[in-house]
Amino acid sequence: MSRPRIHVTRQLPEAVEARLAERFEINEPGDETAHTRAGLEAAMCEADGLLPCVTDAIDASLLALPGRRVQIVANFGVGVNNIDVAAAEAAGVIVTNTPDVLTDATADLAMALVLAATRRMSETEAILRRGDWHGFSPTGWLGMGLQGKTLGILGMGRIGQATARRAALGFGMRIAYFNRSPVGPFDFPAEACDSIEALLAVSDVVSLHVPGGGPQPLTAERIARMKPGAYLVNTARGDVVDETALAEALASGRLAGAGLDVFAKEPSVPDALLALPNVTLLPHIGSATLETRTAMGMLAVDNLMAHFDGAPLPSRVRSR
Known about the structure:
- It contains twelve helices and 13 strands.
- The chain is of the alpha/beta class.
- The chain has two domains: 5-101 and 289-317, NAD(P)-binding Rossmann-like Domain (Rossmann fold, 3-Layer(aba) Sandwich), CATH 3.40.50; 103-281, Rossmann fold, CATH 3.40.50.
- β3, α3 and β4 (72-74) form a beta-alpha-beta unit.
- It holds the Pfam family 2-Hacid_dh_C.
């Protein structure tokens, strides 16, 4: 009996690829054509399963291709706004993701961006590297301390809670949050806000932990309601914030700084953000530890194996 064929769009950690190869027939994951539109269209008709990344668009037209063979899309990532889940369900295609295993790594990076933004790390490193640092100054490049300041968490799910816990227990920050549904209690002090606007009004730093692909939570109007001198951190999805409005607020000085790991049209980053010294920009590395990326890959393989074994899926995604 032939083994199921799995199309992998990107190179994965070595241990993950080895486990895949033990059970499945796979393509060459490092092939640069594997994640192109043409490569995905061919894979939908030639493979039994697809293992894409969060930047691979699996849309309705791809799922409706005549002769489609793919039965399952095992997404490498917790977010699935790159997949039309409703269209997949209508086509009888199962969608899975990789939750939980990237919580700590992403929360760690969120806090790193909070520190980088409030202590002006990218700006001052650039000054040092170009030779413009002329010695210690008591009033040079003053940032904002975190102790006693309010961190506003927009989206109090697993990653939002992990970030809040680090900020509250590790840095002495007050925590405010907004979540669409009731959550808690927590093992740290936290105050719920009844609207996004209320959260923005009290937050010295706002950290975004909401899914993308839906209505934009941080619109231009809401950015205008943030506290003057506040900071924004985004490790969620780029499309949850109006990047143009954010760049304007940062350039004018109304917002003091930002730390961004995600962008609306990756890998493209708006020129307006690239030009700003008060923004730390990272290339979507929230889950980029060897341990986490390996765990993500292993969970994707678990989902594939469960499907083809007829067993319960560890992390199936359904449309709402």
